[in-house]
Design goal:
heterodimer; A: 377 residues; alpha/beta; 2 domains; B: 377 residues; 69% helix; elongated
């Protein structure tokens, strides 16, 4: 490896990137757009869940219960149904996600000491939403039930009774349980994966397609020099993009940053080396811009989105898929990102993940250099 | 006109089927996406790893813990001795949740005071944390209700019979076991058509332009309308076949119930595919090379998927963004396909979605064909 040749290669690439406005636009706008898209579009905090109320009794007590739904931040009563078909229609048409049906003998049963059952009809098409909705509903109804009982006991001269159990939840690392704090750090990995894939798929395959690769081959530049020279500019750009994403996450979306800059920098560098190498390898093998960009996109973006733990918890996947995630570099990067942003995890605890990223990068780089032959096929 | 159109169609079909890359694109990405989304995309929560720090060591505390061990949602991985261990287990991600029972738990419970338990949750994944906390509350409420009635029975048996209480009957409709697969698999059909039909249409046209065969076609007696029809019709048919294929996999492999009418789904699919064809045509008018078409398609597909409600509820988005989602054809198609699959809805419920897609298709097709005709000049 000669420095002046390397320098020349790098300079050529930089000039090429700067002159190609479309690539440049991708490099600058992609992180911005992706961060904003996901930052605003991906939200799992269910608030103001539309409720359809059907009070068959219309008593003081049944109205009290419905008022509790009104008062909760989680629910908004959007429709008061007069009959059962109206309830069914409300749920089926997606007008409301929850229908609360209070039976006609509600207060009568309460007075008689029999359990009064309230029905929660939930549109469970979206299973996750339904699960949370039922949890919130349970909390409202249980609170109501408990208070009713305490009051009643008080009237019976048993005011000394207290609620037997209280659960005090301590939510660590994401105290407010914001889904944005959970999702946004992972987006950085997604952006890096897309950029790494797009950029490199543009680079080598383009030289082949335009025939400039022959010119490069006729020069004394070695294949390692070509690779390093080609990748260094993109590596620098990628790191700048990481910084850009981090600034947006912290300054715009208000995600905490509790870890160390150095950990973020190191892991980003390793992850970038991996995806750039992967993209380079693909573009060397594919030799057509189109095939390369598609293959690169599919092999980096899809796993980064689905198999990295960015959104879907890996522990909940079937065992086979869990094993597959072990060879996905994004998985390690996402857990480092979450550690660095939310937990402030000390680097020592992340060593294993960093090592995995380093191994992946080394492997891919090795493969890429070998795959590239300095001759015309 | 028909003879020429037929020739054009035959040519297009041959081109699609002969192209190795196209053949690959038609089969592999749909299958991979289907399987990955079917298995990896899950918000379900089972066997959450938890640890127990029981400092009371009483019969009562063990009773509470046993309710956690018998729950399918939790997996008790260890019993801790002190606070330091608690911190360590959460930090090293050995447990997502720790149940912390203070000394004096049984005493308070038996005296009729409020006994409190602390639940420490790693809320990095806010969604898992929320759902797990919902399950914790459910267990705690049952426990509380049981111990209340036990105590009443002991202290004031005459009251125990008559104490009022409200119970919640949970009725998750359409997806009673809350399976994520039922939510995601029908949705994948929509995203796949978006990605494939849109991209393929754009590619087919841009490639003709790129390799110069567009000019050759233009000198033949074929009219522009015939050209546009001939270019889009194959992808229309491919889109329909793909819909059927994936729907079949969903039903036969994933056993997603199909409760509605095939004809309703067909109407929806036709309208939706028309929208996507229009988008593909439009992309072809703004792209000179396939690479550009790829990037443009990416920039359209990404937001179209995120804002469609495919994985993230539209209701949770900021209002200005919700307004934007009305322009997303996938938004309507997802409602149609999920409703047909899980709810068995008919046109009486789904007509607003159908009408919106028809309007969008008309508008998009007009714009695209207008632009496309100009681009041929």
């Amino acid at each position: 490896m000669r420095w002046h040749r390397l320098l020349a290669m790098g300079r050529k690439e930089f000039i090429q990137i700067l002159r190609d406005t479309r690539s440049l636009a991708i490099v600058v706008t992609m992180p911005l757009i992706l961060m904003l898209l996901y930052g605003y579009g991906v939200n799992l905090d269910y608030k103001n869940i539309p409720v359809c109320a059907f009070d068959r009794e219309g008593s003081q007590q049944s109205q009290d219960l419905l008022r509790r739904f009104e008062a909760s931040d989680y629910f908004t009563v959007v429709r008061v149904a007069e009959n059962y078909p109206a309830v069914v229609e409300g749920v089926e048409a997606g007008q409301c996600q929850l229908a609360v049906v209070i039976p006609h003998d509600f207060s009568q049963r309460l007075a008689g000491g029999q359990p009064a059952a309230v029905q929660a009809l939930v549109d469970a098409t979206d299973d996750n939403g339904a699960n949370l909705v039922m949890g919130y509903t349970e909390a409202v109804v249980a609170g109501f039930s408990q208070e009713l009982q305490m009051e009643w006991l008080g009237r019976q001269g048993r005011a000394e009774f207290r609620v037997p159990l209280s659960v005090e939840a301590r939510t660590w690392f994401n105290e407010e349980l914001n889904s944005k704090d959970f999702i946004i750090p992972g987006i950085v990995a997604l952006v890096m994966a897309v950029i790494g894939a797009f950029l490199t798929s543009l680079t080598i395959a383009r030289e082949w397609e335009r025939g400039t690769m022959e010119q490069l081959i006729s020069t004394p530049v070695s294949r390692t020099e070509i690779m390093v020279g080609k990748l260094v500019p993109y590596f620098v750009i990628g790191l700048l993009d990481t910084a850009l994403c981090t600034v947006i996450a912290v300054a715009w979306f208000g995600v905490p940053f509790r870890g160390q800059w150095t950990t973020l920098l190191l892991s980003s560098a390793l992850f970038l080396l991996g995806v750039l190498g992967q993209g380079y390898f693909i573009s060397v093998v594919a030799k057509s811009q189109l095939a390369a960009s598609q293959a690169a996109l599919v092999s980096t973006l899809l796993p980064a989105f689905l198999l990295s733990g960015f959104l879907f918890a890996i522990e909940q996947m079937p065992a086979v898929i869990q094993t597959i995630t072990r060879v996905i570099p994004a998985r390690y990067y996402v857990s480092i990102l979450k550690g660095v942003f939310l937990k402030g995890t000390p680097p020592a605890l992340l060593a294993e993940h960093l090592l995995a990223l380093a191994i992946f990068a080394a492997l891919v780089m090795g493969l890429a250099t070998r795959a590239f032959h300095k001759r015309l096929v | 006109m028909w003879a020429r159109l037929r020739q054009m169609l035959i040519k297009e079909f041959i081109q699609v089927v002969r192209d190795k890359r196209m053949r690959f694109m038609l089969v592999v990405p749909p299958m991979v996406q289907m399987l990955v989304f079917g298995y990896a995309a899950t918000f379900e929560i089972h066997h959450v790893p938890i640890a127990v720090l029981d400092l009371d060591h009483s019969q009562e505390s063990r009773e509470l813990v046993s309710r956690f061990t018998s729950s399918p949602y939790f997996d008790v991985r260890g019993y801790l001795d002190n606070q330091r261990q608690l911190r360590e287990w959460i930090d090293t991600e050995q447990a997502v949740l720790v149940l912390h029972i203070h000394p004096g738990f049984a005493q308070k419970l038996n005296k009729g005071e409020t006994a409190s338990v602390q639940v420490v949750v790693d809320a990095t994944n806010s969604n898992t944390a929320l759902i797990a906390l919902g399950y914790v509350n459910q267990i705690a409420q049952r426990f509380a209700a049981d111990s209340q009635s036990e105590r009443l029975l002991r202290v004031a048996p005459q009251l125990a019979e008559r104490a009022p209480r409200v119970e919640l009957e949970r009725r998750p409709w359409y997806n009673p076991d809350l399976r994520s697969q039922w939510f995601f698999v029908p949705g994948v059909i929509g995203t796949l058509i978006l990605i494939m039909v849109g991209l393929l249409t754009a590619f087919a046209i841009v490639r003709e332009r790129e390799i110069g065969t567009l000019e050759q076609i233009m000198v033949t007696p074929i009219t522009r309308t015939e050209f546009i029809l001939g270019k889009t019709a194959p992808f229309f048919i491919i889109g329909l076949i793909d819909t059927a294929l994936i729907a079949l996999v969903g039903t036969l492999w994933f056993k997603i119930p199909f409760r509605g009418e095939i004809s309703v789904l067909l109407v929806g699919a036709v309208l939706y595919i028309l929208c996507i064809l229009a988008v593909g045509l439009f992309i072809s008018t703004i792209s000179r090379t396939q690479q550009q078409a790829m990037v443009s398609a990416f920039f359209f597909n990404m937001p179209a998927i995120i804002f469609s409600g495919f994985g993230f509820p539209i209701r949770n988005m900021p209002e200005w963004l919700q307004a934007l989602t009305y322009l997303d054809p996938l938004r309507y198609f997802l409602v149609v396909i999920r409703s047909v699959y899980l709810k068995g809805s008919g046109l009486d419920i789904l007509w607003p979605q159908m009408a919106s897609m028809a309007a969008l298709a008309a508008a998009l097709l007009t714009i695209s064909i207008f632009r496309f005709r100009k681009s041929l000049d």
